[in-house]
Amino acid sequence: MVRNPHDVMVSNFFSITARKTNPRTFSNISDFIRHPHWGATGYKHKADDLLKVKNKLIIHYEDLFTPVWDKILSYFEIPIDEDKVKKINQCCSFSYIRKHPHKLRRLPEAWRYLPIKGGKARTHSDDSNAHKFRRGKVNGYMDYLSKEDIDYISKVWE
């Protein structure tokens, strides 16, 4: 799965500064995105390595807000059951996950997404930015990044 790098930088900033038990400190998001390891350059290097993998299906994060499961199931040559696909789309919706975070515990490896208790992150739980599933807004980066920050990330990703 790939995602707009601008949105990734904002999500990573909040993950690293608000969700961790021992959060890292950055004076602001602009400093974070320019950090050589955590910022846009470090993320680009990691993404480049992943994109070199052969025989891959690329799904954009933004596609998850549309019914994309037909495409995924077809890629893996799994028969499509329209009723099940409808249920999957419903259960994977952002609003459903935010209302029922405890149901993620049933999924394999969901523990990675569940340093949450009562729908909020265990660390800084009164901070809405500490939620793993914060807003679910495509292009939400525009609410956090300056024009200079947006241009910087875009240049790194040219």
Folded structure, characterized:
- There is one protein chain.
- This protein has helices at residues 5-19, 29-33, 40-51, 69-75, 82-91, 94-99, 147-156, and strands spanning 116-117, 120-121.
- The chain has a two-stranded antiparallel sheet with strand order 1-2.
- It is globular.
- It starts with a helix and ends with a helix.
- The chain has a single domain (5-156), classed as P-loop containing nucleotide triphosphate hydrolases (Rossmann fold, 3-Layer(aba) Sandwich).
- It has 158 residues and is an all-alpha fold.
- A hairpin with a 2-residue loop joins strand 1 and strand 2.
Secondary structure layout plus pairing:
Blueprint: H1 5-19, H2 29-33, H3 40-51, H4 69-75, H5 82-91, H6 94-99, E1 116-117, E2 120-121, H7 147-156
Antiparallel strand pairs: 1-2
Concise overview:
The protein is built from 7 helices and 2 strands, in the order ααααααββα.
Strand content: under 5%
- The gyration radius over C-alpha positions equals 17 Å
Q: Could you say which overall geometry the principal axes of the C-alpha atoms support?
A: globular
The top-level CATH class is Alpha Beta
Summarize the helix and strand pattern as letters.
HHHHHHEEH
Q: Biggest sheet: strands, sense, closure?
A: 2 strands, antiparallel
**Total helical segments:** 7
- CATH-defined architecture: 3-Layer(aba) Sandwich
Structural class: mainly alpha
Total domains, how many? 1
Q: Estimate the mean pLDDT confidence.
A: 76
CATH superfamily membership? P-loop containing nucleotide triphosphate hydrolases
Separation, N- and C-terminal Cα atoms: 19 Å
Number of DSSP strand runs: 2
The residue ranges in which pLDDT falls below 50 over 5 or more consecutive positions are 109-124
